[in-house]
Design a protein that fits this description.
single chain, mainly alpha, two-stranded parallel sheet, 2 strands, globular
Length: about 425
């Protein structure tokens, strides 16, 4: 794929923008910080220059390096095991799972669109290798489900919609209700067990084509042989199984929750282009720098808070959950065949040309969760004239009611059907 370096000055912000964006308020910060700020926010400065053009290969290598760093650091934390080993292991688990997520949600995702390599076979090979390594859904089934997601986003034909419904997610929760739901799902053994064993089962039961089953069996045999010959079963469990299971799944869950405004239009299938565009938003990490009018101790406190949130809160979110080009996921739905490896610059250019097709939410993971889940009826980033579909009118509720009416009241499954 031919890469472009986007050096040309960009146009003025779209008229719809009210005041400077949080990213533009950072223009006065030191120049050496600007590449980091572009990465963490997902937004370049207007008129800025792209220093490093990215490519699919670089994106894949970065994921592999991140996994290697996490496992290596974890190995040093285990040997010898000291008081510092536990926090060190926690950090290394996050680094490892973040690298795994980068390969899964960035590289595998692009192979499903046949946009990682130039050849169909190359995309299949890369996709099959990574999904085998992480016990993920095989390539063909994965691609089929993902193309359905693009054709009918946030509808009942979208597998991710059913996944979130199965966790108990519903729109219109209060912050307290949502907080309890979120922590319950993140720490639910049932949620993680079902998620993990579903992944394993998809690699060994009913697998098509047959070569993929052979790959899964060969990988299993190689893993057993490696652990048996080295005796590193503790290392394998701690440094590989933990990050590839619970942490990987937790990050996947949080990512999926914020990926779309799932409930905005009631999970209906047939939507206009304008409505489909509103289902996805730019998940930008950051906030405006403290205002110059703030002085004295309050200014010191404001800058301390801003620094902590960007270098710790937002950076962790970008490193472990919102990896790679996923910040600009709205661009992917507007322009699936774009130069995704350089998506911050591609999106910025397209927003200048077609501002009506994009919306954005600035802040942290918490802000994106509330906006996507309509927590407390959050409508951040939506145009003023957009009215969310009431949950009582959603396709999910209508289907459940229809199922309940068609099922005899004496059936023991009727309550389960309406509850789902």
């Amino acid at each position: 794929m031919t890469q472009k370096t986007h050096d040309a000055p960009r146009q003025s912000p779209p008229p719809a923008a009210a005041g400077p964006s949080p990213r533009e308020t950072m223009r006065g910060l030191p120049r050496f910080m600007q590449p980091y700020l572009t990465w963490v926010t997902g937004v370049p400065l207007q008129g800025g220059k792209q220093l490093i053009p990215w490519s699919p290969a670089k994106a894949g290598i970065l994921g592999l390096v991140q996994i290697a760093v996490g496992i290596t650091g974890g190995a040093f934390a285990l040997h010898p095991f000291t008081g510092w080993s536990v926090p060190m292991l926690a950090l290394c688990w996050l680094v490892t799972s973040g690298g795994m997520r980068r390969l899964d949600v960035v590289v595998v995702h692009q192979t499903l669109h046949r946009m990682f390599t130039k050849s169909t076979r190359g995309n299949r090979i890369v996709g099959e290798l990574i999904t085998t390594l992480f016990w993920r859904t095989p390539y063909d089934e994965n691609r089929k489900e993902h193309l359905l997601h693009h054709a009918y986003p946030c509808s009942l034909k979208d597998g991710d919609t059913h996944y979130l419904l199965s966790t108990g997610m519903r729109p219109g929760m209060t912050r307290g209700e949502f907080r309890r739901y979120l922590w319950g799902a993140l720490f639910s053994p049932w949620h993680h067990g079902r998620f993990f064993f579903g992944r394993v089962r998809s690699n060994f039961i009913g697998v098509q084509p047959k070569y993929r089953l052979v790959m899964s069996l060969a990988y299993l045999a190689a893993t057993v042989a490696f652990v048996a010959l080295t005796g590193w079963w503790v290392e394998w469990l701690v440094l590989w199984v933990v990050p590839v299971s619970v942490l990987f799944q937790s990050c996947t869950y949080l990512y999926t929750m914020t990926e779309h405004r799932w409930w905005l239009f009631g999970n209906h299938e047939r939507l206009s282009r304008d409505k489909r565009d509103l289902l996805t938003f730019g998940r930008f990490c950051g906030e405006a720098v403290p205002d110059a009018s703030v002085t004295g101790p309050r200014r010191i406190a404001a800058w301390t808070r801003w620094t902590y949130r960007h270098f710790v809160v937002h950076s962790a979110y970008r490193m472990f959950v919102l990896v790679g080009d996923t910040v600009q996921h709205d661009l992917h739905h507007v322009m699936p065949a774009c130069d995704w490896a350089n998506s911050p610059w591609i999106r910025a250019d397209d927003v200048d040309n077609r501002p009506e097709r994009y919306t954005e939410v600035w802040g942290s993971l918490a802000d994106h969760l509330r906006a996507a889940g309509q927590v407390d009826n959050d409508v951040t980033g939506l145009p003023d004239d957009v009215s969310p579909t009431a949950w009582s009118e959603s396709a999910s509720v209508v289907l459940a009611a229809s199922t309940a009416r068609s099922t005899p009241s004496t059936s023991p499954t009727s309550a389960e059907s309406s509850g789902q």
